[in-house]
Records
---
Amino acid sequence: MEFLDCPCTGKSLTRLVRPAVLTLLAGETLHGYEVLRRLAAMRICGGRRPDAAGVYRTLRDMEFEGLLAGAWDLPEQGPAKRRFSVTPRGLACLARWNATLAEYQAAIGQLLEAAGAALGPATDREAS
Amino acid sequence: MEFLDCPCTGKSLTRLVRPAVLTLLAGETLHGYEVLRRLAAMRICGGRRPDAAGVYRTLRDMEFEGLLAGAWDLPEQGPAKRRFSVTPRGLACLARWNATLAEYQAAIGQLLEAAGAALGPATDREAS
DNA sequence: GCAATTAGTAGACGAGGTCTAATAATGGAA
DNA sequence: TTCCATTATTAGACCTCGTCTACTAATTGC
């Protein structure tokens, strides 16, 4: 019994890219490709490198929304890079995310508990 | 500074409707409207009643995928109801969800920690 | 008699994630 | 020296899934 495409495989923890980006950029100014690599190292990405096109678009969107500030870095050597940093508005958004993430964690905890109980108290089922 | 439509408000913990449905139906057979009400009481729905159209569609999809079994209940009194129960395949899926949810929880924990550190260790920021 | 609730369906829409593909520079290996 | 991988970014199509609006139809309560 396979669930190759089933959401239960947890392919990615979607919709958390934005708080992750804000967190990364709250400490330092980075360009998109570096954000991409740092994201890949976070558990929310499950060891997989997130889709580059999606991350770059999210960065542009967040810049448009005023959460990030972007500036072109045009070195004489090498390709142009766009460096992003967090705006005050972005910081406020991250503070709000903090509360939201805590609520998410609690909600998932409740669901985990209920699921465990539903599967049987003493059952250690293994999924294929 | 408002974030009425920003994902940071955590309007809903999306993509967890399926494990929640499996959990609810693992214990008993319910019809769609009852599933809807029980979902509304779970933290993943944040106190809001989830969209009915979406839940009914999810139930149909999961039936089509063999995770749920549906049967029409046609009482002499009252409207027709469709009663859903979990199949063995659905139970296996739920067992897998169990592991996925635990990973989600840990991943969010890591993100929360990083976000807290990024906002400043001793800072108790309040978002409007 | 009318509104609210129960029970379910259909269609359009939108956010956001994935996939493919393209450009362009650099550095290393065959 | 040619070719491939990596760095760095963009564009467009597509898919999933959640939301919104709107509809049918029976029941219950004021």
---
Amino acid sequence: MKKIPPRKQSSCLNCEAREFAWFESVSKGQLVEREKNRTGQYLLAANEHLFIEGDEHHTAYTLKKGWAICYKQLKDGQRQIVHIALAGDFIGYKSEPDEPIDYSVMAVTDCELCSFSEESMSELLKVDINLIHRLIAIQTKQNKTCRKSLSYVGQSQAKNKVAFFLVDLIERLKRRGVDVNSTVDFPLSRVDIADAIGITPVHLGRVSVELSQNEIVECRHNSLSVKNYAVLKNMADSDL
Amino acid sequence: MKKIPPRKQSSCLNCEAREFAWFESVSKGQLVEREKNRTGQYLLAANEHLFIEGDEHHTAYTLKKGWAICYKQLKDGQRQIVHIALAGDFIGYKSEPDEPIDYSVMAVTDCELCSFSEESMSELLKVDINLIHRLIAIQTKQNKTCRKSLSYVGQSQAKNKVAFFLVDLIERLKRRGVDVNSTVDFPLSRVDIADAIGITPVHLGRVSVELSQNEIVECRHNSLSVKNYAVLKNMADSDL
DNA sequence: CGCTATATTGATACAGTTCAAGTTCCGTGG
DNA sequence: CCACGGAACTTGAACTGTATCAATATAGCG
């Protein structure tokens, strides 16, 4: 991971990810002041790790740009992706400084990140009540998302899992201003998607063929194009 | 749900669940004061619902006594249990008052609950910084637990799922002072366990037979007895 | 003491996995 | 710009874990 020297760091003022980030709750006026508590800005190249499950790291990050995956690994090597991190996502925060982190984060594309040390975070939480509430809101949402993933991973079958997963992602991309009607950049590999929804990449392949033959969604080679979002959405949370 | 009249309500002072609950962070001295912001105490009979996914309820609860299940339901009726609530667990909290709750809660055994209205909560969070940090810690832990469930539900197979699930529960019961070496009360049905780990009750039955034949764990008829915890633990997070 | 819930057992079907052999894609260097 | 090599995807055949359905057995409740 490459640290960006202070004079080259970009300001929170014109950060596009801010409306999805922890600092969403900070008013323009206060931003310069709060920004002083940001402890660094980094470049993380694709496929590099930010941290690994078990690390005793002491930093939380806002993903400023790029795609990253958060995952856990079982003893037998099986990988479960627990979250696809997009611009604005707050990752690596732990309330207990002494406990090791319970998941790993790896960049999918080249990423930019802003860091907050534990001290700077508790300083920020001390001086700005809005940041506390925003942090709580972020956690509530993460929880909600995780419960939803758990539900479809546990209860639905392959085709529906794909739909659930894609619809979730598409909605998040939409909010970030991506035009989902055209073909969009989609850096996740088959293996990534498979590990996120709990099936085999091979079987995901077969399901994908079916989805593209039915003119629902085409998802391959770093690009995604939605042909029939209504049907896809309906497939997420129903047997159709 | 039956409301307990004020004069019959028990105090937080000698609550056994408190050390696992939100008020864990409150000192004995402050407890009487904080307790004033508790808005009610309730009895919820077995199989009754506390609230249902989609409800616009405005109350958070501490489970004081009993077992409850938190679950989500897919359109096709499939149920995923996302959490087994035990004494001390904080359930139903939402950071956004306007949003409907994203899961349902049903009592498994008769339960006792303490309630906090949205107003009382924001009052408490305003006056007691420790309660803020405790709330954040609770959410962090819930998140962690959910990620873990997602991982084994998504990636391991039936036998291991059972082990994961039981080990998690057993550890939580231990902390609550239950002697796990003897036979313990275990009110969850086969269907409940199956819906928590994402398999069929019938198949869970077969796996259970195997586990009991191998003298690892016997789990039936409202009781659980662990024969070989070492092996069970090893089965959680490994192929053995 | 019967009645409904819940759990067991067996037979069969299928979704999803595994392994292995192709194929296509894409970045790299000549 | 093309040729190469490795990674990512596809395809096929065989296998297996889990689901389904249906029929019994057992447990707990009124």
---
Amino acid sequence: MARVAGVSQATVSLVMGDKWRGRVSERTAEAVRTAARELGYRPNLAARNLRLGLTRTALLVVPALTNEFFARVHTGAARVAAEHGMGVVLYPSPEGTGPARDPFASSRATLDGVIASSMAAEALTDIRAGGLPLVMLDSDPARPEAAGTVNLDIADGTRQVARHLLALGHRRIAHLAADVDSWTFRVRARALTEALTSAGAAVVRSEPAALTVAAGLSAAERALTGPGPRPTALVCDDDVLAAGACKAARRLGLRVPDDVSVTGFDDLAMATAVDPELTTVRLPAESVGEAGMRALIKVLDGEDPAPVTLPVDLIVRDSTTAAPR
Amino acid sequence: MARVAGVSQATVSLVMGDKWRGRVSERTAEAVRTAARELGYRPNLAARNLRLGLTRTALLVVPALTNEFFARVHTGAARVAAEHGMGVVLYPSPEGTGPARDPFASSRATLDGVIASSMAAEALTDIRAGGLPLVMLDSDPARPEAAGTVNLDIADGTRQVARHLLALGHRRIAHLAADVDSWTFRVRARALTEALTSAGAAVVRSEPAALTVAAGLSAAERALTGPGPRPTALVCDDDVLAAGACKAARRLGLRVPDDVSVTGFDDLAMATAVDPELTTVRLPAESVGEAGMRALIKVLDGEDPAPVTLPVDLIVRDSTTAAPR
DNA sequence: CTGAAAGCGCTTACAG
DNA sequence: CTGAAAGCGCTTACAG
């Protein structure tokens, strides 16, 4: 390339890196650009990475890709990254929220830092071993592993759900709990119990369920047909579970929301795909991604980003109404 | 590292690369491994990439991440990649199926090849400019851009839908067509028209819709309330659209499937989340990813992979029944 | 069985 | 304003 343009390697580097102003003549720069265009020349990133010792690439580790939440987190992260000349590469951890295999062996990308969303802190030891700056999203803020944290106010979202249901007169409330060991779901369970008991109501039953429609359906069946008076509301950890819960209610001959109110969490596309549309908690997923990338960039710049907690909103739709009788 | 282990750089390289057998003594190899463990040493990938001229990493370009189909394609591709010591990095093209910005500028990873799923061929010119081997998934097999292609038998899936509906006595069928310019949707439209007209039926109406529940809903409203006799069946390009169509029917006081049958496509989680569950076409997404990665590996090995077409299956559930009257 | 040396393609002082 | 040189950390012949 340098030969074709009739200049030195150094000059090519300056021009391609847009650092030539005041150091290379306009004429020479133009010649380099022309030659690059004709040759389809692209700087070898591996060489640049080696020389610079950084890659301007971040890895976003997520538990699974089947959830729009993570897609939106990525969108937000990628936007902020682009503004800073960085890129984001996705690593869907093959084992859900469990131990993430070393992404370096897997993605083989060289990375400047990693952002992990909704992962168990323990699941990230392999990644930590790389010594890379780590920003944790939607994870236990008390864990000291991360150089930065961005959280959703999950507890508040759960409290909003509880208050909404209490205001509608519900007192017997069951919880369809995601059968996933992560901070975000532990918070939901704890906040729900606290909010209800402090108001004189109670979680009359808690049913664990994997994050699928079918699992939500059978958990809801158990919750609605178990011993004791039937719950009048089902609080679900996730919209997918809530969709299953609505189907279960219908199969039992119960109307949603007249006989049973159902709430979701996340506000995925599924929340409005089902009938009735789900009352749920909307999570600012893109903002989470944006804040996460901003935090990582600060860490990379040697700064110490303050922890961020983002508010969430209850979206009241048609799956909740006044408790029967 | 070499200094700590008391051996040369070359020896370290041999041991870390697992190429030491018969060339380095067991004793020395063990010493290297121990030192590596203690130091938390990891070979610098940028240096290795530079030296080797390859990265054993493939890029998977997808239109968007909000769809499980692509998540499953990735899962399949990653599995095959891992078996061959490769990794797969995801690149969700920011503009849907439209022009993909140069992923090299964005992901900054150095790549051996790219796999593109469901993208318009024209959208990949930037990527092609990199001169990397390209495998296209779920894309026009007639385009010569790709070194390998893996397709779904979308036309056959559409024909299965048509035959199913015809057998149920439907003759007035409307099409909710995804408002996305890609091969996969063009095939659906063409195959549907052909299958119906050759059986003496017809697509009485075709309504374009973006790939959201809300868009599906309003497109279905248009299809069901337009001039002429009402269609008895709605063939939707996608499960999301079908979910919207079911809601539209219900709002118009029509029962699904008794008054209108509705079919989806893809068999996403949403297909069983809604009530009634959707009759739809199941796509072997993971197999698509696996076959795509296998094809890329062949190309990388200098072979010429044969085009693959994977069969798809109609899944009959509760959203279709005999035509009314 | 082990080490010294070359070279992958960049970027960045440094010299002219 | 431009070029020659060093060096990032590997891997791979090659020599011993």
